[in-house]
Amino acid sequence: MIGRGLRAELVAVSQELHRRGWVANHDGNVTARLAADRFVATPTATSKRRIDDRNLIEVDGAGKVVGGTGKPFGELGLHLVIYQRRDDVGAVVHAHPPYATALAVSGSRLLERPFIAEAVVSLGPRVPTVPFALPGAAAREALLPFVAEHDAVLIANHGALAWGADLEQAYLRLELVEHLARIATLAQATGGPAYLPDSALAPLLEARSKAGLGKAAERAAAASPRPVVACAPAPHSDVPTIAPGNRARVAALIREEIVRALKE
Ligand SMILES: [Zn+2]
Q1: Is 74 helix (H, G, I), strand (E, B) or coil?
Q2: What's the pLDDT tens digit per position in 211-231?
């Protein structure tokens, strides 16, 4: 059966969201791409504790159920916006992890500037907050401007959302957002996080690009005769090299990303 491994992984991630206390009641949702226009998803109105292969559903790119007996969750549109905009994305995970959600509901900007070097490599210079919008079309429109340049966001008065090449990467990004939110919150007791100096950004973003992470690296990869791997799991992994002819282009893209980060 096509996608059996993916379905099993989606079940495991869903149950993990509950085990870690990142969801309550029927909160949270997980999807993964089975084919260009077909996705496996958690059903609505089901605790993530009770997700198993039998209650998963499959939907098309318009959100119509094409497999399974359950109904799609209300936030499915947010997932589909990401898949439509980013063909490199294979999975989306949403939950209400307490520390990240605490920042999202308080309007905190603690994750808007970098304070841990490795997180810049994994997630980019900041985790932005999508402004509050009512569920449905308004929420999708609010998210859209953040999709191309980011891999994880907080959603104001709501929770956190992360996406990646596969379920593992999307899950790890959500985990890192929650970890950063927890560290930033704890650091408040001793004066708040000291942010990284601006001069640290260039080498960190270069490492991010070399690891095949982030929008700049993806755009460089698209133009490269020897494609950069799009989903290196961590900055410590074997990193692919950038073709010499593309170094100037990558440097320009990194500069763009730094300028954007400093402006924001
Ligand atoms: Zn939610």
Answers
A1: coil
A2: 888 765 565 555 554 433 333
What's the confidence (pLDDT) of residue 4? 81
- In the reported structure, the alpha carbon of residue 95 is separated from the centroid of ligand 1 by a whole-number distance in angstroms of 6
The pLDDT score that the predictor gives to residue 8 is 97
**In angstroms, what is the C-alpha Rg of the chain?**
18
Tell me the CA–centroid distance for residue 94 and ligand 1, in Å. 6
Question: Residues 52, 12: contact at Cβ < 8 Å?
Answer: no
User: Residue ranges of the chain with pLDDT lower than 70?
Assistant: 1-2, 215-264
Catalytic residues: 75
E-only strand ranges, the chain: 29-35, 38-41, 57-60, 65-67, 91-95, 129-130, 152-155, 159-164
Query: What is the C-alpha separation between 146 and 81, in angstroms, rounded?
Result: 11
- Grouping H, G, I as helix, E, B as strand and the rest as coil, residue 79 is helix
CA of 109 to the centre of ligand 1 (A): 20
Rounded CA separation 248/91 (Å): 32
Please give the C-alpha separations between residue 209 and each of 173, 200, 223, 255, in angstroms, as whole numbers.
17, 15, 14, 12
218: left (phi over 0), alpha (psi -120 to 50) or beta: alpha
**Distance between CA atoms of residues 172 and 103, nearest Å:** 19
* CA atoms within 13 Å, Cβ hemisphere of 249: 14
pLDDT at residue 172, rounded to an integer: 97
